[in-house]
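Appendix B. Chain record.
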Amino acid sequence: MKGFVLGLFRTAIFLGFIFLITGCSNGKLVAGGPTPTPSPGNAFVYTANAGGNSISAFANDGTGALTPVPGSPFSVPGQPFGTAAAAPNNKFLYVTQFQNNQVSGFIISPTTGVLTPLTCPSVATTDVQPLKIVVNPTSTLLYTANQIGSVSGFAINATTGCLTAISTTPTDTVARGITIDQSGQFLYVVTGGGGIDAFSIGANGALTRLAIGGFDSGTTTMLAVKAVPTFELLMATDGGSTNDLRTFNINTSTGTLTPIVATTPGSSPANPSAIAFNTPLNATTPLFYIANTAANNFTVNSVDATGAIGNASVTVPDSTGPIDLSVDPSGKFLYVANNGSNTVSVFNANITAGNFTTALLSTAPTGGGPESIVVVGHP
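Structure tokens predicted for this chain:
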């Protein structure tokens, strides 16, 4: 970490973690269907740079190469941490300010990717130290996971992009990752208490804690959580000396989580801190990618609607400190934000055991200390 404060924050989150870099099992990787070919410049890529107080913005050229958009990096105070875009039109970009306890919003230019700050009547204020951020599938609601132990919810104005506060709801201690299921009915948060907190989302966006809906790992090191966009399945990772991953079935009526798979402790490389799915490439058996921050690599495997994981993981070397990752709308490219090297790595997203050594396509510099990344199609 570049800044002293950010370093303390990182230490606080991962205090006591013992990172063990281990190998993956042998077997066959399910790779999905043919790779789509996007048109040139079909997406914009944004990183929230907490160490540099900025957002780096890029346009892709259809080959994986990134070109900074005019004006990039864009200044954002308060250690910008999490990023999210309002889909399906991707007109608005949002970023959490960790130090300032608020969310900043921007309009995305549909032709250049340039960011223009929203002009809103009031500041979107969160609870203390917002980390990750998520937007529901219909782009009407936005939520932040706040390190103090809560979720702040907002309604999104479809015309202006401005946020109106709904409520702040307590979670277990140290809220980290946050996700919403594909139906938009349920929200899940992984916490420093070692659990996955589950909430139902009301018609007005208010959250209700599901007493029987969550999960407790028995550890204090749950790091990331992500719902598959095309079926009711949840995936989460555990760090520390555990370094494993878990899949859960989501009950579509109650939101309750039923554990399906828990991999062997130590089966994942150190600090599995972020998850992404490639549903454009294969909606029924998507590849998933896990950024392993302390191991300087990411893993690739497949998962299906039953929660079954492919027979093998492929481990792909990357730059220092991969912290977050995202797939472009075509499913062709995987973008990885590297916190330690202040870069974005671009990979062929259709990674297999046969091509992983040549999957890296390009890299581009970002502002200092990127913490998250989002890839959006043209509005």
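Further analysis of this model is presented in Appendix C.
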